[in-house]
Amino acid sequence: MFVKLKDSDTIAAIATPLGEGGISVIRISGQQAFAVADKIFVGRNNLAESPSHTAHFGRVVDSSGSYVDEVVAVTFRAPNSYTCEDVVELSCHGGYIVTQKVLHVILSAGGRLAEPGEFTKRAFLNGRLDLSQAEAVGDLIHSQSEAAYRSSVRQLSGELSRGIKGVRDELLNLSSLLELELDFSEEDVEFANRKTLEDRLVGAIGVVDELLASYAVGRVYKEGVRVTIAGKPNAGKSSLLNALLSEDRAIVGPTPGTTRDTISESVSIGGVLFRLTDTAGLRETTDIIEHEGVRRAQKEAEEADIVLLVMDYGEQYYNGIESMYSRLAEACDRSEIRLIKVWNKIDLYRSEAPRSTTDGNGFYVSALLGDGIDFLRNGLSKMVLSDQFNESSVVVTNARHRDALSRAKRSLGLALDTLKGGKSREFVALDLRAGLNALGEITGEVTTEDVLNNIFSKFCIGK
Ligand SMILES: Nc1nc2c(ncn2[C@@H]2O[C@H](COP(=O)(O)OP(=O)(O)OP(=O)(O)O)[C@@H](O)[C@H]2O)c(=O)[nH]1
Ligand SMILES: [Mg+2]
Predict the structure, then answer these.
(1) How far is ligand 1, taken at its centre, from the CA of residue 417, in Å?
(2) Is the Cβ atom of 366 under 6 angstroms away from ligand 1?
(3) Centre of ligand 2 from the C-alpha of residue 79, in Å
(4) 287 in helix, strand or coil?
(5) Nearest Cα to 300, choosing from 269, 325, 321, 328?
(6) Is residue 223 lining ligand 1, measured as CB closer than 6 Å?
(7) Under 8 Å between Cβ of 39 and 110
(8) pTM of the model as a whole
(9) Helix (H) or strand (E) holding 136
(10) Closest to 164 (Cα-Cα) out of 398, 385, 415, 388
(11) Do β-strands 338-344 and 41-43 pair in parallel, antiparallel, or remain unpaired?
(12) Residue 276's beta-bridge partner residues?
């Protein structure tokens, strides 16, 4: 599949966030970038005649020559720019109205307003970035934790691309050997030893498998860990949420049933983003609204990575706690969710509560006073970090990439089966191609306009 460059329009957009600030940057890119900029820029030098990578002080004027703002224009000549096209960046005063005015003047002078992500899309179409790197730019901008930041920087540097390229090159070799054989099929020659072919295919599937497996960690890096706080009414779930967030986010109250809906907040612990959800207490209820709250609580728990089961420490010997725990444990087990017991209100049971803040039976905290909370925080981040791959392994963080890898794995598996079954080489070659194409989708060697639009429409305008 071939994607053509959409057009040769010269595009412009505000590249900095809207609002008040020291400066705002407006970016112009395309064949006419210098011509458009020179129509509105009055300075000592003509920009079109200035060398690349130079800064010029001047004024922006509208078509009637009226003063709009004082700016610094920076020139970038193709291909040495973000988009690989001619680019002029104007730094004007950072204010909502002034920035809009400068942009408006540029658009009147022949620029077109850029679509979301269009600058990065052009960088991709012009070959400066591959698709997974372009996606990393978006991830980098959106990253909300140290882990998300680190994984997007690594992807931007081309780490995933290199991993994919390694397998693709290997498969391309195999594929061309097979296709060569097909060309000579009359003579029934074998260019590649079957066993070697099989081994190399198994090796490639292994690499794809490893990349697929890394998604479990990659998703956590990018989207955070979903933690549901569950437990009986009044156990102190909302208090625990507040303690973990270090703010009074959820309403806490002495009457059971205080929380009726779910409340979610994010917090970064040990560089990893955790999405904490407080839920309504788990019990059978007759109140319709609370009943709905409980239903949502159960649903939240099903979609979590970790469930914190909050229990009043004093209730440990009472009936019901164990059966609630085992019911939840069964459900969590089925869905591979980690269930952690948090015994709360230890301040009320000083004489009997264990001295350590954690043991095999869970964590011991006082959500009210903050005792043991740091320990629980540490425990949560360690749990996730111990799942991590080592720093040097390539991590897949994007669902689109995971999907492409799964399809590649399926096709390569079929190719291997066919090869082992001694069936026709045509089929092996066909499946191998399908696998190659699926891998090519990740880096964008194989792509469609729809896929690109879908990816870049999620970017902001100006990126
Ligand atoms: N002494 C003590 N009281 C606590 C502690 N944690 C919570 N409480 C109190 O227990 C009561 C219930 O706390 P919440 O945080 O609202 O409990 P919840 O589990 O969210 O309750 P529901 O939303 O009704 O299910 C409040 O009066 C809290 O102040 C604690 O560690 N020690
Ligand atoms: Mg509550």
Answers:
(1) 59
(2) yes
(3) 58
(4) coil
(5) 328
(6) no
(7) yes
(8) 0.79
(9) helix 131-142
(10) 398
(11) unpaired
(12) 227, 265
| Nearest CA-CA partner of 346 in 322, 388, 323, 312 | 312
Residue 230 in tokens: 């569950």
CB distance 368 to ligand 1 below 6 Å? yes
Task: Indicate which atom in ligand 1 lies nearest the CA of residue 366.
Answer: 31
- Model pLDDT for residues 333-358, shown as the tens digit of each residue: 887 889 999 999 999 988 776 666 77
| C-alpha separations of 49 from 82, 94, 165, 420, 446 in Å | 20, 27, 41, 65, 39
Is the separation of the CB atoms in 223 and 152 below 8 Å?
Answer: no
**pLDDT tens-digit series, residues 295-348:** 677 777 778 899 999 999 988 777 677 777 887 888 888 878 899 999 999 999
Ligand lying nearest the CA atom of residue 294: 1
Query: d(Cα 235, Cα 342) in Å, to the nearest integer?
Result: 10
| Residue among 447, 437, 463 nearest 164 (CA) | 437
How far apart are the CA of 289 and the centre of ligand 1, in A? 20
For residue 239, which atom of ligand 1 is closest to its CA? 15
pLDDT of residue 285: 62
Contact 59, 69 (CB under 8 A): yes
Question: For helices 146-156 and 159-183, what crossing angle results, to 10°?
Answer: 40
Helix (H, G, I), strand (E, B) or coil at 219: helix
Whole-number Å distance between alpha carbons of 359 and 361: 5
Amino acid at 1: M
